[in-house]
Structures are given as structure tokens and as C-alpha cells.
Amino acid sequence: MAIYGGLNRLVLVKICPTCEFENLPTIPFCVQCCDSLVSVVPTESIVAANMPCEPSLGTEVRIVCPDCKTENGEGVVRCLYCDCVMC
Q1: Is 55 within 8 Å of 49 (Cβ atoms)?
Q2: Whole-angstrom Cα distance, residue 29 to residue 79?
Q3: CA–centroid distance for 25 within its chain
Q4: Domain residues of the chain, as ranges?
Q5: Which residues contact residue 37 at a Cβ distance below 8 angstroms, ignoring those fewer than 6 apart?
Q6: Most buried of the four, 52, 60, 70, 85, by CB within 10 Å?
Q7: Burial class for 56, CB neighbours closer than 10 Å (0-12, 13-18, 19+)
Q8: CA angle at residue 75 from 72 to 78, to 5 degrees?
Q9: Do 80 and 72 touch, CB atoms closer than 8 A?
């Protein structure tokens, strides 16, 4: 399914079963509440054309996980990839 005309676009997201936050489909834990998304199937969501699908890496502060060395966004409590507590 596609939306044309430049007004909206479809993106795949994983909707957290606990807090209903729309997460990127590639991460195993919710960005907002850290609940597991491993069993959640990505679904299509309509996003306004002027909203980015992913955070901008240029202006956002990135935090590197001490265990797996993966970059996470600012304010993340647990690593989105290995579930390590971010101190």
C-alpha cells in the first residue's frame, strides 16, 4: 500500500504493547519504556511527509552503550540492542 501526493507516507513501526510508543522496526526494546519488542510484529503507520522516520544523527546527542558499543539516542535508559542499563 502506498500513499501518493507527497502528503503522507507509510513506515513500518513496532508499537509497544505497554505504552503504545511507535518504535523503529529494527530495535528489540521500546525507546520510551524499555519493554521487550522481540515478539512484536512491525506494522504500517502513516506519518506526515515532513516528519522524519528516524532521528537526525547530526543534531541529536548519541550515547554509546558500554557493553555492545552501539549508539543510542539521548535519554534512553536501557540499550536498545543488548538491554544493558545505560549509566
Answers
A1: no
A2: 8
A3: 7
A4: 1-54, 55-87
A5: 14, 16, 23, 27, 28, 29, 30
A6: 70
A7: exposed
A8: 60
A9: yes
Query: In which residue are the cell numbers 521487550 written?
Result: 36
Residue 43 near residue 12, CB atoms below 8 Å: yes
pLDDT in tens, the chain (87 residues): 344 445 566 778 899 999 988 888 888 888 888 889 989 999 888 765 544 444 444 455 677 888 888 887 777 777 877 878 776
Q: Residue 15: left (phi > 0), alpha (psi -120 to 50), or beta?
A: beta
State how far the alpha carbon of 59 is from the alpha carbons of 56, 72, 78, in Å: 6, 13, 21
Give me the residue label for grid cell 505504552.
19
> CA geometry: angle at 47 spanning 45 and 52, to 5°?
120
